[in-house]
Design brief:
Number of domains: 1
Shape: globular
Length: 164
Amino acid sequence: MPIPSRVLLRNTPENVVATAFSSTASCQQLLSHTSVTKMQPPYTIWLTQIEQIHRFVYHIPNLAWELMDYATEPLSLIYKQAKPLFTNEAAPREVCIRLIAEPFLRKQLTGQHAYLAVALERIKDEFPITDWVDQEIDMSRVLKGTRPVRVMRIYDNGEFSFVP
């Protein structure tokens, strides 16, 4: 059974608040309570199928396809040519996307097109997360040995760099 629309996932390997893109209002509410950083977008878009990337990015360099297909650890990629996240809104300067490869997490997310995920540490203190989410799930028992998520910025010329 898919997870609810708004969920707090612990140990994925980080603690993440995620909401289904099918609920525009929930996504916009979550974004309004997210702290912005200069190093990378303050959120990650989680995909359950690689083809879903076309909804969020105009141009996907060949290197990015290969990295998503063959990554053996959690990997998020930052793209410059982002599409608008929501109808009638401007496109973000860049977008961070992670193809969910962990079998249990992928199974939980099945049935939704994509999720907007924000690390708990980037949620502003005044936002009542425990009241807002529909469910809290501890993934530590099913995701044993999961490594930290690596973040890589992909440039249009095929070059890349890891984000600290």
